[in-house]
Amino acid sequence: MLAVVDVLEVAVTAGESGPVMVLSGEADVTSAGRLGEFLTAHLSDGAREIVVDVSGLRFADSASVRVLVLAGKTLRERGGTLVLLRPQPPVARVLELMGADELLDVRESVMEQAAHGPDSPDLGG
Amino acid sequence: MTAGPGPAPVEARLRAIQSITDAALSRLDDRELLAELLDRTRDILQADTAAVLLLDFSSGQLIATAAAGLEEEVRQGVRIPVGRGFAGRIAAEHRPVILDHVDHTTVLNPILWAKGIHSMVGVPMMAGGRVIGVMHVGSLRPRRFTSHDVELLQVAADRAATAVQSMAARADRVAVESLQRSLVPSALPAVAGAEMAARYVPGSGVVGGDWYDVFILPSGDLCVVMGDVAGSGLPAAVIMGRMRSALRAYALETPDPAEVLGRLDRKIQHFEPGALATVLYAVIDPALDQMRVCLAGHFPPVMARPGRPAELAGVARSLMIGVQPGAPRQVTTVPILPGTLLCFYTDGLIERPGEIIDDGMERLRRAVVAQAPEMACSVVMGALVGNEPARDDIALLMIRFQPDRAEARIRLLPSLAREEVSADV
């Protein structure tokens, strides 16, 4: 049996408008399930806004991005949003290639309003 | 042997329960192992009945799965909602419950009172911090179960929980892999003027939801699908199967790749609201001189023309499937010159931890050379995977178009008529 090293660290703190998940290390297919479980737990608690601080994430693969986009979709359907905070270049590039930067509210700070994202109705048009 | 458990008998009984992990048990299948475990637990605790109920997460009910002295509970498919009755309370509160007198106020399941069970003790089965079921034993005569009994039963329940988890994981993996393999083409279509080869490797870390598909439409169009469903394991594989057949159905209805993905998106958002996927759908004309491609969050194909370095096809991007109703989708037409090799892939091929995605794409671009597709696949797998077990699924498809354009006519070769049609080419 192959030893799979899951090097994603998740810390959760309470923010002003909802939970803040601070991700660090590397998020790949082997940690995507756990990431999804964390997000689902907050979603079933009724959160409307979830901030995911990815500034300490060295790497994220497309499996992890799909999990984030799926959680963002659930939040948007209840009038909320998933804020992705400070993605570093390797993460930002995957988001861009997958078009996920248009689906998530990517920001440099919690206060900043997104230039585009879930709030704008004509997304991608 | 007396019923009163003194210190020495407890130790002996604990050893007896620990023996439940012995090698002989490991050869039994899921249900046999639970049955054997329950038999031994019942003997060691000098009880009359023993049962395991496993939690069905989707319904929130405990389902009787194995029993000793209480087989009717399993045969009748007893279901207990979490939070109600004896077993339901154990699951809801995550703690043992002792019942000195069983009656309809404390126990929901009529089988237990009809059986004449007088006293019971039950404990939660835990895995990864979550309740996965309940194990309980019962006595037909009045009996006060003690904290020693609870302790012993908890040891047995922990063994059962571990066994159930590992067997469920193994069974899931086998099911997912066979489902996945049944959903990728067993043979690539025979097309005059185009040669194809493919590789498909399920992930070693988790089995994801990658699929690919190649088929020919009645119009003679050659269609290529690469997709990757969010999530992993059995749920992802099931969604993948539904996406694959829905996409095939829409491909028969309309020649426009953007329209096909748009319909797929609408179908998924309505019927599978929790599903999400990245998909590439390409339609190659019967003359094999152009490809119309639509990307829904998927990575672009690599194209190698003979004698030239390979390049990433410049294809417009649109949103993933399953996210936004009515998302606009754009089709890019890519001209295909004779001798061109097209390389389609899923992300597992190019993503490596600690690396920017462009590095993986560049490695792929360098490895793709216009040559026979089997060789092209081998070279790419060698360069990008090597001897490393890939964590994620990998799907790879290569199509090379014949250098001689005069011969490049797509042909549908029905299996019965294969010889005649081939002779005709």
Can you walk me through this structure?
The complex is a heterodimer of chains A (125) and B (425). With 125 residues, chain A is α/β, with parallel strands linked by helices. Helices cover 33% and strands 29% of the residues of chain A. Chain A has three helices and five strands; from the N terminus they run ββαβαβαβ. Chain A has helices at residues 29-44, 62-77, 89-97; strands at 8-14, 19-27, 49-60, 81-85, 105-107. Chain A has a five-stranded mixed sheet. In chain A, helix 1 (29-44) runs parallel beside helix 2. The model of chain A is unreliable at 114-125 (pLDDT under 50). By secondary structure, chain B is α+β, with helices and mostly antiparallel strands. Chain B has twelve helices and 17 strands. Chain B is elongated. The termini of chain B are far apart. At the A-B interface, helix 1, helix 2 and helix 3 of A face strand 14 of B.
The number of distinct helices of chain A, counting runs of at least 4 residues, comes to 3
Name the poorly predicted regions of chain B: 1-7, 406-425
Report, as a whole number of angstroms, the end-to-end distance of chain A: 47 Å
Overall mean pLDDT of chain A stands at 84
- The whole-angstrom Rg of chain A is 14 Å
Look at the structure and give the mean pLDDT of chain B: 87
Series of H and E elements of chain B: HHHEEHEHEHEEHEEEHHEEEEEEEHHEH
The total strand number of chain A stands at 5
SS element count, helices of chain B: 12
Low-confidence stretches of chain A: 114-125
Q: What is the CA-based Rg of chain B, rounded?
A: 29 Å
Concise structural overview:
The complex is a heterodimer of chains A (125) and B (425). Chain A is an alpha/beta fold.
Topology of helices and strands:
The complex is a heterodimer of chains A (125) and B (425).
Chain A: E1 8-14, E2 19-27, H1 29-44, E3 49-60, H2 62-77, E4 81-85, H3 89-97, E5 105-107
Parallel strand pairs in A: 2-3, 3-4, 4-5
Antiparallel strand pairs in A: 1-2
Helix pairs in contact in A: 1-2
Chain B: H1 7-18, H2 23-26, H3 30-44, E1 49-56, E2 61-68, H4 71-75, E3 79-81, H5 85-93, E4 97-99, H6 110-114, E5 119-127, E6 130-139, H7 147-183, E7 194-201, E8 209-216, E9 222-229, H8 233-253, H9 257-271, E10 277-284, E11 290-296, E12 302-304, E13 311-312, E14 317-318, E15 332-335, E16 341-345, H10 357-367, H11 373-384, E17 394-401, H12 418-424
Parallel strand pairs in B: 11-14
Antiparallel strand pairs in B: 1-2, 1-6, 2-3, 4-5, 5-6, 7-17, 8-9, 9-10, 10-11, 11-15, 12-13, 12-16, 16-17
Helix pairs in contact in B: 1-7, 3-7, 7-8, 8-9, 10-11
